[in-house]
Amino acid sequence: MAESVEVDPDYPAGDDAAIENREQVSGDPQSPSSIHQSVEKSPSSTKSLSYDGSIFEQILENGRAYANETYFMPCDEQEQTRIAVTHQCFTSILNGQLSFQNIPRTARRILDIGTGTGDWAIAVAEKFPNAEVVATDITCFQPTDVPPNVFFEIDDAQEEWTYTDPFDFIHIRGLSGAFTDWTAVYEKAFRHLKPNGILEVADFGPIKVVEESPDSYLSIYHGALVSAAEKANTPLGLDHMKKPLLETAGFSVAKSRTLDVPLGTWSPDPRKKVAGKMALIAMLESLEATSLRLLTRELGWKEEGVRDLCGKVKEEIMAEGKRPSVECQFLVARKLMI
Questions:
Q1: DSSP assignments along 53-81, one per residue
Q2: 20 to 30 Å CA-CA from 260: which of 20, 27, 60, 329?
């Protein structure tokens, strides 16, 4: 099937609902909040945490907690909040739906790669009670009180996949920069899909503003981040959603759509204001989360310098008349029957 590429400034209206509060019970070794204790600032140290009877270690660095020595995004409570808000933002963009491509009602096995806090996997498990939903991540900050048909696993999608039964639908969202070799990940997804199975990938691009100057703080931030990510061999952006990568892995790209999402409530379109509120929160939180480890490790920046730049970028994009926005891209590919 030929690729259909659309740039659509208008997307479905979302529900003007409050962001769901995540229940936290202090002291419970199985609650999300107990996994992410407050940490002292340190260039690099480790801590052990207990989750569902298992012991895991986290790397403490510059006041943030990380799952391992390589992945640049943190996994602490602050990051949990950002991921939860991002999930609500995607849901609003999709007019309350959980995916751009409808998940077949006949689906019996669904895989969520990089599940984060597990919000998407839990919602899908509730919507498809007869399906088995497998949700993986490299760390453990998912809740334990979940539907019986959702299964969280600690796993790195860059390693070999050991599933014996194929999936009807595979979901990857918000993992720009997570993998050094996206083609290899797509090849694994292709092998583990049923014939006519669907892969959906979704991600946000970088923040844009009106008339961004080359010497603006936002330009400096983007330039440094791109350089650091390239040095780490984990390129950021939306290049992992290009058609040739999927085709090399064996997929037929069914459709790709790019939506323009305002950050904040500046858009006159009331349908965009709800998603814009949540997108602004998520994107402001992502400034430090995305850059702190990359810039300090790869470019030798000081922690204070990174935080100072992030603060100036926030002020800059929130200035009157800047009208910040981001591109949100969805890509749907199929494993066609031969």
A1: TEEEEEEEETTEEESSSS--SB-SHHHHH
A2: 20
316 sits in the region (left: phi over 0; alpha: psi -120 to 50; else beta) called: alpha
Residue type, 255: K
φ/ψ (deg, to 5) at 69:
-85, -10
Query: Which of 113, 330, 308 minimizes the C-alpha distance to 204?
Result: 330
Tell me which DSSP letter residue 266 carries.
-
First and final CA of the chain: distance in angstroms?
A: 13
The per-residue pLDDT for range 269-278, each reduced to its tens digit, is: 988 999 999 9
pLDDT in tens, 70-104: 999 999 999 999 999 999 999 999 999 999 999 99
The answer to whether 310 and 287 have CB atoms below 8 angstroms apart is yes
The neighbouring-strand residues paired with 7 are: 258
Contact 55, 143 (CB under 8 A): no
> Residue 148: how many CB atoms within 10 A of its CB?
8
Whole-number pLDDT of residue 10: 45
Q: CA 115 to CA 84: how far, in whole Å?
A: 11
